[in-house]
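<instruction>
Derive structure tokens from the sequence
<entry> Chain with its tokenised backbone below:
===
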Amino acid sequence: MASWARTTVLFTALTMLLMLFGFVIGLAIGVSPIGLMFVGLVFAGIMNFASYEFSDRFVLWSTHAKIITEAQNPQFYSIVRRVSEEAHIPMPRVGIVQSNQPNAFATGKGPNKSVVVATTSILQMLSPSELEAVIGHEISHVVHRDVLVASIAATVAGTISFLGQMVLWNSFFGGFGGGGNSRNNNQNVILLIVAAILVPIAAMLVQLGIGRSRETSADEAGARLTQKPQELINALRKISGRAQASQWNRANAPSPATSALWIVNPLKGSSWTELFSTHPSLEKRVRAIRKVAQEMGIAAE
């Protein structure tokens, strides 16, 4: 599916979900459901605009990424420049996340406005050739505009998760009318059900936004771009072996809404979040890269 079509699907889904959210809340609190549906429609319009315009900022904020200058890390910067030149796109901005987990991602609207981000751990762990292969994967996402759809999906998912959590906490503390009578108790039950439904929907929207096939496609395109299929295989094996949710500090752990953006799922081993994994298995990715290597006449293990 083309990026514009996937973006349209995401915007439509957000609009419908927020209108449904308003309708259910209206029923629960005893006000006009149609009126709150209209509120949901207006809010969806605002969110659609904001997610398109500012999704990259949301992603950088929610992943705790810091934009750096070339002087701060000349080697990483030069690798990004070299790969972007090979891909014939403008130089992306470069960012770093302080983390013990080796990982990387890209975000932005597309080739003319993108950001490539790596964790401090991956910069230390990979060889320059392996890091270049990883950046090739991320730049391929940029070239194919996967980053726009995935960044919007992350923003949409974050919004829906926030609304679900807001409803959940208001239900716990007697919000939306409060009180202890049976009517209010029934309201809280309805709101709790709504909250329980919204959170997994948010995760599924992320999966819709990028899909496992896009990761495999970026692996293949990145291997061709950098001419380093074996280095990409080596990098994926190293990253996958150490990418566990427990390696994040609580203060800088990425949101589940942004997990689809990373080259390897950053929340592996994090209970239910793996049920909605947007990444194919390591074995499948290695097989796809080996096939590309064979087409290029390069041996790959």
About this structure: The two ends are 32 Å apart (CA to CA). The longest helix spans residues 182-226. The first strand starts at residue 66 and ends at 68. Residues 3-296 form one domain.
